Amino acid sequence: MDPLDFLEPAELLSFFHCHKTEMSCMENPQTFLCQLRDHNLIPEDRYQKMIRMKSKNNMRKAVYEVLDWLERKKSDHIPLFWRCVFKEVIVNQYPTLKLLHTSLMDGSFHFDPQLPKRVESEESDERGSSKLLDSEEKQPRSTKKKRKVRSGSICSDSDDEQPGPSKKQTLSPKKKPKKILFSSPKKNEMSEIWTWPIYKTQLPVTCGEVEGMLKRDKLTKGEKCILVGKEWFTPSEFERFAGKESSRNWKQSIRCGDSTLGKLIKAGHLNAAVYKKRSKPAKKSQFSTRHLNTDEEDSRDEEATLEAQASSGEATEEEERSDWAEVSPVRDKTMFKVTCGALTGTLHKYRFGSGKCGKSIRTEMSWLTPVEFVNVALNQGDASWRKDILYEGKPLSVLIEANVLAIHSLLCKCKQCKPKPEDLESQKNDDECCICKSEGKEELVVCDNCPRSFHQKCHLPHIDDTILRDDSQWMCTFCVFKAIEGCRYPDKQKTEAVLSRQISQHMLECPYLLLYLCSADEEQIFATNPGQYLENYSSIIKTPMWLDNIADKLQWKEYQTVGEFVSDVQLIFTNSATYNKNNPEYRGMGENLKQLFDREFKKAFNIQD
């Protein structure tokens, strides 16, 4: 008989209550969460959300919240919880669980201090704030057919829904939406600079006393990825350049802040291809025929490669094992640029169900299923979506056979495969805000004329609550601008004349131009005040400017002329060029965005100088 059978459920529940915080602080809780998921102890949507988290602080908070939810909502499952996490393979991985198991088995937990009875404050009771406000206890709000407000619950209690392998989480509405949600690092995340938006494409790294800038995509492709001055190095070359060649393990000798690259790679913050000694070409292609091999064939390939490298003296045995342990970057991707004929789109993995289930491909003007995408592109009813849709020149079937994309079971009951009417309506629009690139916790307001979605205060002008209550169709600023584009300025305009005009006459063009910039700034580099996360910024830049500051000025009508608005936009690019004069990567981002603005500005006002 299991020793846990001698313990009363109330004892196990009390023990669980006292040790939730300890369990939420366990390092790398992915295996722990997988075990809970396999025993149906946590909802699928909450699990999917947590495994994508990169911040340790956010992960700890999320683990505690799901344990707290389990205690409150599924307390009768606590005995099952202890049985599944006390499996030998799980306990051996987590010292915290081993200590808890020992405490239960030897009875030492009886000596723990008795907890006082839990009470709510009188003030909370009087205000009614002691009521449960967790999002999982709220009923999911239905999506309207017109002017839909996308919302849902973080945690679903439904037992009959069986999500498919790529089921997406939904997020609960929040009472007060923020301003434009351009992200910047929080105080408790200041040490984890690899999660900052400004370091999304590159990271500052050191090896010994030498500093450099690591380009993430070049590391993924196995190219020379570290820039020192004007010279590019592979990680091994950078290690030698810094005088650390004797370590022969760049994943440990090269660091970002206090963390080694090996630690960041293992945690999923970086993707690294296989690097070989003596500048040999890196392992090819993000998804080659290797992905189609069985595990046994992969093992034989790995052994043969290691044997060949060992005989040629190209790398140490430890380095080779480490390199081959890396997972191909394509498996971590969630979006894939696809084509079919002349039509292009982006396939979103979490929306994919099968050829006919799940509108998973986003084109410029609509969301389509793979079958619909092929029919629109080729106008052929008998076309094969697996063969005719291409990713990097290869048919989509390659991703399916490599288990990068998983076709849902015919019995799957997820929202992609067995959608309710409101789910079908919801699939027509984006799941994240077009401007701030996040789902956030506020409701998303969707355009009835295009696939875009917006937070109320991300759109310009802000979307008022009275508009949401109106049953008539609503078009976003992008669609309104496009609808009247041909009749605004039949005659050619001059730049000087446009800049001197009152901005009150152009409260369509200027908000459109700013929303266009925000949407084009995919990595949100120019969204927030750089002084919040760059220590020496204020000493170099005396007049900072950023996109959401301009948005506030537009919303509150602080500009008098079009020229004042344009001057602030150009100030962003000037500041970027000044601050990043020794950083070609970020200087190039500012220059590219400036070119986009200049071109769209002339187009919007029909300027021809």
TrEMBL record:
Residues 118-182, 281-326 are annotated as: Disordered. Residues 1-109 form the HSR domain. Keywords: Bromodomain, Metal-binding, Phosphoprotein, Zinc, Zinc-finger. CDD domains: Bromodomain (cd04369). Residues 141-150 have a biased composition (Basic residues). Residues 118-140 have a biased composition (Basic and acidic residues). Residues 188-271, 325-406 form the SAND domain. InterPro entries: AIRE, Bromodomain, Bromodomain-like_sf, HSR_dom, SAND-like_dom_sf, SAND_dom, Sp110/Sp140/Sp140L-like, Znf_FYVE_PHD. Residues 430-482 form the PHD-type domain. Residues 295-305 have a biased composition (Acidic residues). Residues 534-587 form the Bromo domain. Transmembrane segments: none annotated. This is Nuclear body protein SP140-like protein.
